[in-house]
Specification:
alpha/beta, 433 residues, globular, 5-stranded parallel sheet, 8-stranded parallel sheet
Length: 433
C-alpha cells in the first residue's frame, strides 16, 4: 500500500496545517500500519520531527511540474495579463492531457539549463505509484489561494485518471467565484473517494451550486480538534489568549491591531488576567508572533515568543492556560474550543467570516464571531467579558461538541478504509450505475 499525502503547507510554518497533517498521518498509520506514506515537503528535517513515521518527498519536484510558464517561459512574461492567463491555462491543460510529452520537454529544458531534474521524476513516480492520494486538512480551495488550489486538484486528477483512491479530509471550501477554479472543482470533486468538510454552513451550499451530490460528502469538523482535545487541562486557566492574523486575505491591518490591542490590554487589566500570545503562523511573511507582541505590549517590543512556540502541542498547551481566547486566525479558535475554552473570533473578510461562522455552527456554543462594523471596541470588550464570565458554564458543552466531531472525523477515515479494502473505487462504481 502506497499513500501520498498533500499537506496544507510545505514549509511546516503554520501550526494549524501541521496539526492537521499529524492527525492525518496518525490515522492513516492506524488503518494501514505497513503502508509506505510519502508527504510532500520543502523541509524534510522538520517534517520528520512532526511526523517521524513518514517518508519526505521533496516538494521541489512538485513545484517544477506546476511552475507557471514552465513551458512557454519567457514568452508569458512579455505578454499583458489578459493574454497571459489563457496561455497559462493552455499550459496547465497540456500537463493534464500530455503528461509524458510535457515531462520530456521539462527534462530537456532542465538539461539545457544544466539544472537538476531528478526530483521532477520522483514526484511524478510518487503520484503514479500511489494507491491512495490524501489531501490533509486545509482551507485552500478558494479564490485566495487559487494557484495552490488548482495544483491540489490536478494532483487528485492525476491519481483519479490512473484509478487511485483519493480523499480530502478536514476541508474548508470557498469563497469560490473564479470560473476557472469552479470548473476544475466541478470536474474533480465528484470523482474523489471521500470528501470530508470542516463545516456545512458555507461549504454545502457551494457544492450545491456546483451540482455536486451532497450525499457523497461528510461533515466532520476539523481534524486537529482531536489533537487539542487530548491535551485539554482538567480545569480552565486564568489567562486571555490573543491571536490576530494580519494579511491581505484577513483584511486586518496595523490600525486594527492597535485598536484590538488597546481593548485587550484594558480588559485584561480590569479582570486582573495575564495575556498570552498564541501564534499559529510563525513565518516571516505572515507572522502571528510579531502581531502577538504588539497586542500584548503595544509599541514595546519583546523577543520572548520568537523561539518559544514552534510545535502544535506547544501552542495547544499555551492555549490550555487560558480561560478565554480572542482569535483572528482559524486554528487559534479550534485549539481553544477543542479544549473547552470559549473564543471570541474577529473576522473582516468573507474568507474568515465563512471560517468562523462555520466553526460557530459546528460547536454550537462558546464561539462569538465579531465583524468590525465601526463599533469594534465596544463589541469586543463586551464579548470578551461575557466569555470570561460564562467560561465555566460553557466548557462542558464545548467539549461535548469536540467529542462529536472527533467521532465523525474518525468515522470518515474508517469509511475510506472500508472502500479501499473493498477495492471498489467510487469513480468507476458510480459511472457503472
Amino acid at each position: 500500500m502506497r499513500i501520498l499525502v498533500e499537506p496544507g503547507c510545505f514549509d511546516c510554518l503554520n501550526m494549524g496545517d501541521v496539526a492537521m497533517l499529524q492527525v492525518t498521518v496518525d490515522r492513516l498509520r492506524e488503518l494501514w500500519p505497513e503502508a509506505r506514506i510519502q508527504v510532500s515537503t520543502e523541509v524534510p528535517e522538520c517534517l520528520q520531527v512532526y511526523c517521524p513515521k513518514v517518508e519526505p518527498l521533496d516538494a521541489l519536484g512538485r513545484h517544477i511540474w506546476f511552475q507557471n510558464g514552465c513551458l512557454c517561459s519567457p514568452l508569458h512574461k512579455l505578454l499583458p495579463e489578459p493574454l497571459t492567463l489563457p496561455l497559462l491555462d493552455l499550459e496547465r491543460e497540456a500537463r493534464r492531457r500530455y503528461r509524458l510529452q510535457v515531462e520530456t520537454l521539462l527534462r530537456l529544458k532542465k538539461r539545457l539549463l544544466r539544472q537538476d531534474y531528478a526530483l521532477l521524476g520522483s514526484f511524478l513516480r510518487a503520484v503514479s505509484a500511489a494507491d491512495l492520494i490524501v489531501v490533509s486538512g486545509q482551507g485552500s480551495i478558494n479564490d485566495i489561494f487559487h494557484d495552490h488550489a488548482l495544483n491540489v486538484l490536478d494532483v487528485l486528477g492525476m491519481g483519479i485518471h490512473r484509478g487511485a483512491f483519493t480523499a480530502l479530509f478536514g476541508q474548508g471550501l470557498g469563497p469560490l467565484g473564479n470560473p476557472r477554479l469552479r470548473a476544475r472543482v466541478k470536474q474533480i470533486l465528484p470523482d474523489v473517494s471521500m470528501l470530508a468538510l470542516r463545516e456545512s454552513r458555507a461549504a454545502l451550499p457551494l457544492l450545491d451550486s456546483l451540482d455536486i451530490d451532497p450525499s457523497a460528502v461528510e461533515v466532520t469538523g476539523d481534524d486537529a480538534i482531536e489533537l487539542a482535545y487530548n491535551e485539554r487541562p482538567n480545569e480552565l486557566g486564568n489567562a486571555i489568549g490573543v491571536n490576530l492574523r494580519v494579511s491581505s486575505y484577513s483584511h486586518i491591518d496595523d490600525n486594527e491591531v492597535e485598536k484590538v490591542g488597546s481593548v485587550l490590554r484594558r480588559v485584561a487589566t480590569k479582570l486582573g488576567a495575564p495575556m498570552v500570545s498564541v501564534p499559529i503562523a510563525i513565518d516571516n511573511e505572515i507572522s502571528d508572533l510579531k502581531t502577538g507582541q504588539r497586542l500584548l505590549h503595544g509599541g514595546e517590543q519583546s523577543d520572548e515568543l520568537e523561539t518559544s512556540l514552534n510545535t502544535p502541542l506547544q501552542v495547544i498547551n499555551r492555549i490550555g492556560e487560558c480561560r478565554t481566547v480572542v482569535a483572528g486566525s482559524y486554528h487559534a479558535a479550534v485549539f481553544a474550543m477543542a479544549q473547552g475554552i470559549p473564543t471570541v473570533c474577529l473576522a473582516n473578510s468573507e474568507y474568515y467570516i465563512d471560517k468562523f461562522m462555520g466553526l460557530a455552527e459546528q460547536f454550537g456554543t462558546g464561539c462569538k464571531v465579531i465583524v468590525d462594523d465601526g463599533q469594534l471596541s465596544v463589541t469586543l470588550e463586551s464579548a470578551l467579558e461575557d466569555a470570561w464570565r460564562l467560561a465555566a458554564d460553557t466548557r462542558s458543552r464545548l467539549l461535548q461538541a469536540a467529542d462529536r466531531q472527533i467521532e465523525a472525523s474518525r468515522a470518515a477515515y474508517y469509511k475510506l478504509y472500508e472502500q479501499v479494502s473493498s477495492g471498489v473505487n467510487k469513480r468507476y462504481s458510480d459511472r457503472a450505475h
